[in-house]
Design brief:
Blueprint (H helix, E strand, L loop, with lengths): L3 H10 L7 E5 L2 E6 L13 H9 L4 E4 L5 H8 L5 E5 L2 H10 L4 E3 L10 E6 L10 H13 L1 E12 L23 E8 L2 E2 L3 E4 L3 H10 L2 E8 L4 E8 L2
Parallel strand pairs: 3-4, 3-6, 4-5, 6-7
Antiparallel strand pairs: 1-2, 1-8, 7-12, 8-9, 8-10, 11-12
Helix pairs in contact: 1-4
Protein name: Class I SAM-dependent methyltransferase
Keywords: Methyltransferase, Transferase
Pfam families: Methyltransf_12
Length: 236
Amino acid sequence: MKDLFGRAILDYQTSNSPQDLITETTISEEDEMSVAYLFREYDSMPLIEQKALTLSYGKTLDVGAGAGSHSLYLQNEKHLDVTAIDISQQAIQTCALRGVKNAAVADILTWDTEKFDTILLLMNGTGIFGTLEKTSRFLEKLRSLLKPNGQILIDSSDIIYMFDQDEDGSYSVPADTYYGELEFTISYKGEKEESFPWLYLDYNTLQNIAVANNLACELVAEGEHYDYLARLTLLH
């Protein structure tokens, strides 16, 4: 991986002529994404993210931290003990430059240092699962990192609205794959990243898989555009 996403984040942080990211998926055309958005303050965050940060407590793990905006808020405004992790070295470098005290380059599937009260996965947190088939593996791992009264706060979107609807109300979705499984491509400064799988998960499917992995699943908030925040806790 060229880590163009991380490069864009670090370029913005260091004023190294940052440009917009170009994103594209298997069901959507190229779209520009402002890197500045990843550096937003709490007041500029979607209500779902604000709700997740409000609900966060105790020792917290921010998975896929990106530029570290969520970690910084929890660290500086709520005074929580936060660890930010991301697979991007340049993103974690940016987190450190911005003042995140605990930031590490890490894959959640191999992260095994301690347990947490809150685990955050925001900005379509289900995306890192990649495919529906791998979701249980990730939830099992996340479950293993929870303290007894811990919580996982995760958001996603039901993208069924992006598919054509038939006269009978049904949707024309792929027959051989779950409709939320996409291939995602990022371009930056004329370079293109290798495509990678990215998963959007509807709430009912998340709930079913969570329960199958001994996690209770609660719908905490719904956004304005088919997005939602869920809270997962240990089933006792």
